């Protein structure tokens, strides 16, 4: 039996990969026996979609079939954008998104090259379940974005957590790790 692989996608901005290394470490610590892949997506560091898209596509193609994607902040929006625009499911078993800014074309946190069409959900591949988590005390991405995502992706499970801020650390909330453990067991 092969170990499950989790592909963790960082948030955006200079130094985001280093900042999000704590989340990758928390994933590895909470889920022993799971391979956590944490490639640096240079386009996310530069907040440049033209370079993010091919790097993210390569990371998703390297994910073994049945792998799980966990993405933080703008990295989560980038994954949704790429999946809805490419139409490929990449064999993803489940998608876990943490503190994702609402980036739709109605220009609330959109209007840049990371924004995407309001009907994107109709173009998402039929991959595994989508679970979205947001902390009520996030001081960067407004908590209300979780409700906006729930309206756009009705099939997604949205979970409000407390005390995690934007970085979801230093330890992941038990809601995230328990849900990940269930997804791995399925």
TrEMBL record:
InterPro entries: AB_hydrolase_fold, RBBP9/YdeN. GO terms for molecular function: hydrolase activity. Keywords: Hydrolase. Pfam families: Ser_hydrolase. Gene3D superfamilies: alpha/beta hydrolase. It comes from the Bacteria. This is Alpha/beta hydrolase. It comes from Paracoccus caeni.
């Amino acid at each position: 039996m092969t170990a499950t692989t989790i592909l963790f996608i960082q948030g955006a901005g200079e130094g985001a990969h280093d900042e999000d290394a704590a989340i990758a470490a928390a994933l590895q610590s909470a889920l022993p026996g799971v391979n956590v892949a944490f490639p640096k997506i240079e386009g996310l560091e530069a907040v440049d979609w033209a370079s993010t898209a091919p790097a993210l596509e390569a990371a998703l193609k390297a994910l073994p079939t049945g792998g799980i994607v966990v993405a933080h902040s703008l990295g989560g929006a980038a994954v949704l954008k790429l999946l809805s625009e490419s139409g490929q499911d990449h064999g993803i078993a489940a998608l876990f998104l943490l503190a994702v800014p609402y980036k739709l074309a109605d220009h609330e946190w959109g209007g840049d090259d990371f924004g995407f069409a309001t009907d994107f959900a109709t173009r998402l591949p039929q991959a595994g379940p989508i679970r979205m988590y947001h902390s009520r005390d996030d001081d960067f991405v407004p908590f209300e974005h979780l409700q906006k995502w729930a309206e756009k992706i009705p099939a997604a499970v949205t979970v409000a957590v407390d005390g995690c801020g934007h970085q979801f650390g230093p330890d992941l909330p038990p809601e995230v790790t328990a849900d990940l453990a269930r997804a791995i067991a399925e």
